[in-house]
Amino acid sequence: MSDKRSSSPRPAEPGQRRPSVGVQIGKITVGGGAPIVVQSMTNTDTEDPVSTAKQIAELARAGSELVRITVNTPAAAAAVPRIRERLEMMGVDVPIIGDFHYNGHQLLEGEPACAEALAKYRINPGNVGFGKKKDSQFAAIIEKAIQYGKPVRIGANWGSLDQSMVAMLMDENHQRAEPWDASHVAREALIRSALDSAIRAEEIGLPRDRIILSCKVSGVQELIAVYRDIAHRCDYALHLGLTEAGMGSKGITASSAALAVLLQEGIGDTIRISLTPEPGASRTGEVVVAQELLQTMGLRAFTPLVTACPGCGRTTSEFFQELAKSVQAHVREKMPEWRVKYDGVENLTLAVMGCVVNGPGESKHANIGISLPGNGEAPSAPVFIDGEKAMTLRGDRIADEFIAILDNYVATKYVGRGA
Predict the structure, then answer these.
(1) Cβ neighbours of residue 9 under 8 Å, at least 6 residues apart?
(2) Does the model's pTM come out above 0.90?
(3) Domain extents for the chain?
């Protein structure tokens, strides 16, 4: 088997993207210098096309550019075309990715309409098959991808490593003059599982520009080490994500810590933040975190973000906190409409500040900013527009008036699409 890794470019310097092969998934391009793509995954029962289509639509409207669904049973596979039809009726054309484990070869063979309706297939080389069946079942899925013109993500995972690969590498390690530690062997098994599978897919006939790789682990330092290594050894497009990141602030912090380092080094073409939702919470939270990570790093712009002070003994009650929250909520609510109507509105900057110390300065740096009165300050709130003081708000309707100023700014400053 030829090794295509040795001539691959090194990761880019900070601020530069690592060169990668572009992969087309519906209207979305992953890699090849295209903007980094946000994706998410449903947690509904795919056999229920109504709830699954509804959640896909929610994720897409929140900004997920690719959505993955579980395809694990014949009934789930049969539901995929109906899910696609429902989304079309709702005006949602987000590409859907089928996540296959253990029986993907059977499902794609048994439900050709599913194979056609999906925009991409995801295969885990650690559980695509076992023993003598592994190669034939992997090949069967790749052949379906070739038949239907679909790209494939080969996604290795720390929790489901190819045990035959691990055993082989452990044997090799015993022969080294200076053996690697166990974590190094496991990382190598993860990377080799993905790379060897990709090379095998090419040998079967899947074009290089239809292959995306991922090597997911649940530890921050391990993830950074794995992706630095695989980025050095290939030019396939890479999907980033800290698997089983966790719930709430822990999941957000861990994912951001790992992905920010890699993204800053130019590694990564598409990302997912694998958060465990709070009970009853919307699945869209992981999309918001992914967007905010890319936007705060200056890699993409999705929606206006609010700069707001944390509050201190100078600030008055919770009013500025409530205003910041309501402004950010208003922006996110309006963005689906604004995104269609106005070019560049996602680059709008806003500031809600709580007192005179940094308030006027931060407000002047934003397109629209308000500096609320702190303790002992005059009961007035100057509003700055594009660096200049435009007006002063007073009274009980400051929040409503400031949001009205924001809406008017968007309507008058941004060029309407098709105008």
Answers:
(1) 18, 19, 235
(2) yes
(3) 23-297, 305-413
Helix (H, G, I), strand (E, B) or coil at 349: strand
- 23-297 and 305-413: identical CATH topology: no
Nearest to 165 by CA among 194, 141, 140: 194
CA distance 394 to 294: 36
Binding-site positions: 309, 312, 355, 362
Which one, of 149, 242, 146, 248, lies nearest residue 200 by Cα? Answer: 146
End-to-end CA distance of the chain: 56
Quote the pLDDT of residue 316. 67
- CATH no. for 305-413: 3.30.413.10
Mean pLDDT, contiguous 10-residue spans, the chain (419 residues):
43 74 98 98 98 98 96 98 98 98 98 98 95 95 98 95 88 93 92 97 98 96 97 98 92 97 98 93 95 96 93 81 93 92 95 92 96 86 97 94 97 78
Q: What tokens were used for 367?
A: 């397109």
Q: What is the CATH number of domain 23-297?
A: 3.20.20.20
Distance between CA atoms of 76 and 73, rounded to whole angstroms? Answer: 5
User: Residues forming the annotated binding site for [4Fe-4S] cluster?
Assistant: 309, 312, 355, 362
